[in-house]
Write a structure and sequence with these properties.
This protein has 9 helices and no strands. It has helices at residues 17-27, 32-37, 41-55, 61-74, 80-90, 95-103, 110-124, 131-139, 144-167.
Length: 186
């Protein structure tokens, strides 16, 4: 496997430097994912744009976490699961929700479980859902807008999860305490 560079402000391509400066200012560090993505500035920019758009989606903090972590766990992303555990804490998501997602155990509410099941179906079936799967999601209290927002979240996470798999991105220091390894295999 090729080695990917963890870029900093000195080594990054010119087009990535302003993006890394923004990351440094926003997080007080350059997250490893951003450092790797800087090799392809358009990927880093695209990821950041999708992240911002997903944050602006109609989902609440618990629901955003369910979408993100469902995908991260399914993809067994060694970097994103710990990172999003820390992000969930900063968003005031309960440990009950975070732990259920990380451990693949039932979520505290039927509505959140419906969101996880729908997200998994979208991921595993590549959007080729049966009508009853869509109707079950809508019956749980979600909307067609939410259907499309799951696709947005999935798009964002494919970018990060695949990058982290290839680059073996080291987990950032603030998230090491949330280290994670997939318990089940499919």
């Amino acid at each position: 496997m090729s080695t990917f560079t963890l870029h900093d402000l000195n080594s990054a391509p010119e087009a990535a430097k302003p993006l890394l400066e923004e990351s440094q200012n926003a997080f007080g560090m350059i997250p490893g994912l951003h450092a790797v993505m800087a090799e392809a500035p358009v990927l880093l920019e695209g990821y950041r744009v999708l992240h911002g758009l997903f944050l602006d989606s109609s989902f609440n903090a618990d629901e955003k976490t369910v979408v993100w972590q469902t995908i991260n766990v399914e993809h067994a992303c060694h970097y994103c699961v710990p990172a999003h555990t820390g992000i969930a804490k900063s968003m005031k998501v309960s440990d009950d929700v975070s732990n259920a997602l990380r451990d693949e155990t039932p979520l505290p509410t039927a509505k959140l479980e419906a969101l996880r099941n729908f997200t998994l179906a979208m991921l595993r079936q590549r959007g080729e859902l049966e009508e009853n799967q869509l109707q079950e999601f809508l019956a749980a209290g979600y909307t067609r807008q939410n259907v499309l927002e799951v696709i947005l979240g999935l798009s964002q996470k494919v970018m990060s999860n695949y990058t982290n798999h290839l680059a073996k991105t080291p987990v950032d220091e603030p998230f090491k305490r949330y280290a994670w390894e997939k318990k089940s295999s499919r």
